[in-house]
Design brief:
mainly alpha; Rossmann fold; Tyrosyl-Transfer RNA Synthetase; 2 domains; two-stranded parallel ribbon; 6% strand; globular; binds tryptophanyl-5'AMP
Length: 353
């Protein structure tokens, strides 16, 4: 994870910061159990960043309802993500941890941005196409509009840096396009910063354990395709044992791993969990078969994830305390967003603004 540190310190130079104010925003949907991809691609980065800049880490429940969520479960799912944040090391005294629906600025700015973003831009969003498949006519308008709300999340706080996994790169490009068009249309050149995606780092794209052509995903029907943060040590060992590989052994060099997607993925997971390089892992296991490598990987994963799972359980035992944390942070988020939204209303020219 060293490159993350290096990257953000580079970005954090005065020339790159927005009017001297660097701010981080990121979010995770409360739409299912978190998996190793979410942990390595997002949560682990959050923990590093909270000591470097002002951070808002959101549980994006408004995004979650773009597909059906059982109202009886949504609050619990929100608590689960909150608990996962805290158990991974996000500290609510350092970072602002809240759920999106508590802060009205998100939906208000999303509407203004709906009037800035162009249909053609949204038509190009690959994640909508992937999620909708052949059923796009039957999807909610919210699912289609999802990236506009994401832009509003970030820009309601004039956030400059957004730590995310590789799959969010296109949404971040759209956020930049919306910010630039708003600034241009309203002749307010520096109104919004152009937020920078922080995708770098070893865990940016964790693949399915069953199919190296797909990313690890909450929505994959096969539970064996992912390691959930709530999995037991046994589940983790079994899933890695079943993980797809090939007939070869662990190679000596990164170059020799090219084209061996599943192997590269497992080595990458090992490296990301232990904060070592891929080459370091290869040097240690070169020539070994997967019968040796997979149990070693499972041990590392259990060692890193078990304390998080246990802590999550402890946080979840006190949902009222989680709500207190979310409510206090939402008040703070509102304090930051409200003056920005007041300026937006004035800039657009509303009577009464
Ligand atoms: P979500 O909930 O799908 O995923 C949360 C975070 O986990 C990352 N991620 C992965 N990283 C590596 N490998 C994977 N296989 C993997 N799968 C998921 C995601 O990139 C993400 O960082 N649209 C966002 C939520 C969002 C948001 C925002 C993010 C809403 N508003 C504003 C940043 C800024 C999403 O669906 O994340």
């Amino acid at each position: 994870m060293n490159d993350i540190k290096t990257d953000t310190s580079v970005l954090n130079t005065p020339e790159r910061s927005y009017k001297g104010q660097d701010r981080v925003f990121s979010g995770v949907q409360p739409s299912g159990t978190l998996h190793l991809g979410n942990y390595l691609g997002a949560l682990k980065k959050f923990v590093k960043m909270q000591d470097q800049m002002e951070c808002l880490f959101c549980i994006v429940d408004l995004h979650a309802i773009t597909v059906w969520q059982d109202p009886k479960l949504l609050r619990q799912q929100t608590h689960e993500i909150t608990a996962a944040y805290l158990a991974s090391g996000v500290d609510p005294k350092k970072a602002i941890v809240y759920n999106q629906s508590r802060v009205r600025a998100h939906t208000e700015l999303a509407w203004y941005f709906n009037c800035v973003a162009r249909l053609g831009w949204l038509n190009r969003m690959t994640q909508f196409k992937d999620k909708a498949g052949k059923n796009s006519e039957r999807m909610s308008v919210g699912l289609y509009d999802y990236p506009v709300l994401q832009a509003a999340d970030i820009l309601a706080f004039k956030a400059t840096h957004v730590p995310v996994g590789e799959d969010q790169r296109q949404h971040l490009e759209l956020s930049r396009d919306i910010a630039a068009k708003f600034n241009h249309d309203f002749d307010a050149p520096d109104f919004f910063p152009l937020p920078e995606a922080l995708v770098q780092g070893p865990g940016a794209k964790i693949l399915s354990l069953r199919d190296g052509s797909k990313k690890m995903s909450k929505s994959d029907p096969s539970d064996n395709s992912r390691i959930n943060l709530t999995d037991s040590a046994d589940d983790i060992a079994k899933k890695f044992k079943k993980a797809k590989t090939d007939a070869g052994v662990i190679p000596e060099t990164v170059k020799e791993m090219e084209g061996r997607l599943e192997v590269k993925n497992l080595v990458g997971i090992f490296a990301a969990l232990t904060e070592r390089t891929d080459q370091d892992i290869l040097t240690e296991y070169a020539g070994q078969g997967f019968g040796v490598f997979k149990p070693a990987l499972a041990d590392v994963a259990v060692e890193k994830l078990e304390p998080i799972t246990n802590l999550m359980r402890r946080y979840l035992a006190d949902p009222d305390e989680l709500d207190r944390i979310l409510a206090a942070a939402a008040d703070r988020a509102t304090e930051i967003a409200e003056p920005i939204l007041a300026d937006v209303r004035k800039t657009i020219g509303f009577s009464g603004a």
